[in-house]
């Protein structure tokens, strides 16, 4: 438990947090720099999760800090409905360039959840604009996480996020998830078993008919559910089936975008062309909230043929906020100037070896990795799913390490700028914690 006293804790209802437990045992961060946070007692806490997967360039990058400071002292806010400002156009153009010009347009939101709902709405609107107004059905995947809007939890497949919130969107189906411990435990990188699971999309198409289906949305690597790496060939097969049936394919790259797999997007890593990519998090290095939907020109252009006036009745007060654009532009500069992706590629093998060196330690039943992501799956305590990993989380924080847990999986996703010494520190601490767990 932390020693220092701080503000009273009662007024703030914390998101995705065991509030009562936290308020008994608070964990308070007060500053950050590079790979480390500092807690309220001045203790360094190594960031093994890039915040919430959202700080690929490490904390308090001077160039981003300066860009945001300049932006706030010039244009603090500008509306984006029927009015624009130069930075938002500049940022959109730079993002298209970052995507290798594989996309034509960018629609700005403020979060991953909003990006997902935006992409789902664009998909339905696209088919309508093409004269296919019956194509409204949306296909997600079991164990998928697409944020917390009603669209996102409807296509999402994490039971705890869905069960408390009523009937959700109608007209939604789910592919099976791809995790299989029996076939794929301890795989380094992409598993070889499981690409056939994509064929389930054909079953769904046969059931509902392609003329009713607007889009399929998947995370290329499922993150929040506990890091499920797709089987080799699976995503390519999904693309083929979508193309054959005129269904749009959306990759939710809120965590895999901006270098997490050592490529600009996971779409590059897997060499698959989705029709839209949803993003957020690393888009601004987490400094100012922002999301973006990357859209292929054929999708965008379908909206541009109707009557004069507003083509898409959708948008947010803070779409394209000047401070977020400034943070995003500075982030892209750093990605390019420091060749962050090359650094990530260079260190990914060391990362993989460190992850798999945990094999055989107490409670470990699977290890997974891809790019700079890893999962350590622990045996659950009977009747108390999640308790063991949460104990690991608490011990890690006390020991100066921030990890993320979901169920009994420890998920790691450090800033991409980490060095080997950080990997050593992380895994030494994790090994010691695993040995100490009940
Ligand atoms: C794949 C994916 N989609 C959507 C979201 C939601 O993003 P946000 O929390 O910014 O709404 C997340 C958040 O972790 C995510 O991992």
TrEMBL record:
Family annotation (InterPro entries): Aminotrans_3, PyrdxlP-dep_Trfase, PyrdxlP-dep_Trfase_major, PyrdxlP-dep_Trfase_small
The keyword Ribonucleoprotein is annotated on this UniProt entry: no
Recorded superkingdom: Bacteria
Keywords for this protein: Aminotransferase, Pyridoxal phosphate, Transferase
GO BP annotations listed: biotin biosynthetic process
Pfam families in the cross-refs: Aminotran_3
GO molecular function, one term: pyridoxal phosphate binding
Listed PANTHER family: ADENOSYLMETHIONINE-8-AMINO-7-OXONONANOATE AMINOTRANSFERASE, BETA-ALANINE--PYRUVATE AMINOTRANSFERASE
Family: Belongs to the class-III pyridoxal-phosphate-dependent aminotransferase family.
Name used for this protein in its record: Aminotransferase class-III
Organism of this sequence: Paraburkholderia phytofirmans (strain DSM 17436 / LMG 22146 / PsJN) (Burkholderia phytofirmans)
Taxonomic lineage from the root: Bacteria, Pseudomonadati, Pseudomonadota, Betaproteobacteria, Burkholderiales
